[in-house]
Amino acid sequence: MDANGIIHRADADDRPRPRSMTTDDTVPDPLEEQLPAVRTALAEASRLLACLDFDGTLAPIVDEPDAAAPTPANEAAVETLADEPAVTTAVISGRALADVRERVDGPSIYAGNHGLELERRGSVAVHPVARKRATRIERACEALETVLEPIPNARIEDKRLTATVHVRSVPPAAEPVVERRTREIVDRFGGDELEISGGKQILEIEPSIPWGKGNALELIDAELPDDTVALYIGDDTTDESAFRAVEPDGFGVLVGDDEPSAASARVASPAEVASFLEWLGETGVELLAE
Ligand SMILES: O=P(O)(O)OC[C@H]1O[C@H](O[C@H]2O[C@H](CO)[C@@H](O)[C@H](O)[C@H]2O)[C@H](O)[C@@H](O)[C@@H]1O
């Protein structure tokens, strides 16, 4: 685990780098510095695709995952943006689709489980390999409930296609035990078919397939006019693939500090996300080409 509480996947030499890091990543500019470029891109586009992460972006990070909720300002700004005819609004979350859908109203598109399930036009598509491996996730979750039961505040979130082991409220001395037991269980029930990645004070157990939020975003974008400008706002390691999907023609906006990212702009908090979404709903949409 690093100083920011982010648990990175165990790096064997032949494994991909943690998804937050590539050698091309740089520190994003404060959003104000990128606003002229955002204005220009909007003026050259006929449509805006606004894709939003949930935890840490629309909703402040809290100790209890079930208690996460969008700030009232974000709730209102998302609904306003979603009502705009020239804007397609999507939430792309690491949570299960049914979970995140309950937490945010307005968008016409939702992706859950880091893009493994995608709801649009009234139907849900599930990645076929992830669907096949759901039984392994279920078995791993059952075993984790047993082996992590003695660890105070270790929490397992079974999301059917993936699972999250939360360590935010686990005593620091017990975190290595949680990580070791989780790896043992994933090896036993997942073999080569499951892997562990990182996030904010979590271990994400997921099918070992090259699919992430960026792939879901590309599927959504592919159905929109060519002159659509795409935007993605997110705060965590799994958001990096979505930043890469929108950059450099669109805009990735990191919610966080001055850390390297594939996003070109950054804001500090969900409150600043709301201000940007409000600006997009009031001013940004007016800039879109007729
Ligand atoms: O892609 P996201 O929508 O940001 O989802 C990523 C994970 O978010 C949740 O966990 C995080 O938020 C919790 C509530 O604030 C916090 O307690 C936890 O420490 C964070 O990692 C969610 O519970 C996970 O399922 C998502 O994968």
List the helices and strands and how they pair.
Blueprint: E1 29-30, H1 31-43, E2 47-52, H2 72-83, E3 87-92, H3 97-103, E4 109-112, E5 117-120, E6 123-126, H4 128-132, H5 134-147, E7 155-158, E8 163-166, H6 175-190, E9 194-199, E10 202-207, H7 213-222, E11 228-234, H8 240-246, E12 251-255, E13 265-267, H9 270-287
Parallel strand pairs: 1-13, 2-3, 2-11, 3-4, 11-12, 12-13
Antiparallel strand pairs: 4-5, 5-6, 7-8, 8-10, 9-10
The structure holds ligand L263DTV3.
CATH class of the largest domain: Alpha Beta
Quaternary organization: single chain
Q: Give the class from helix and strand content and strand pairing.
A: alpha/beta
Number of separate helices:
9
Write down the overall geometry.
globular
The low-confidence runs, each spanning 5 or more residues with pLDDT under 50, are 1-20
Largest sheet: 9 strands, mixed
> How many structural domains in the coordinates?
2
The H-level CATH homologous superfamily of the largest domain, spelled out, is HAD superfamily/HAD-like
Enter the CATH topology name of the largest domain: Rossmann fold
Termini gap: 49 Å
Looking at the overall shape, the CATH architecture of the largest domain is 3-Layer(aba) Sandwich
Output the helix-strand order.
EHEHEHEEEHHEEHEEHEHEEH
The residue-averaged pLDDT reads: 93
Helix percent band: 25-40%
Radius of gyration: 19 Å
**How many DSSP-defined strands?**
13
Strand order of the largest sheet: 1-13-12-11-2-3-4-5-6
Bin the strand percentage. 15-25%
Bound molecules: the ligand O=P(O)(O)OC[C@H]1O[C@H](O[C@H]2O[C@H](CO)[C@@H](O)[C@H](O)[C@H]2O)[C@H](O)[C@@H](O)[C@@H]1O
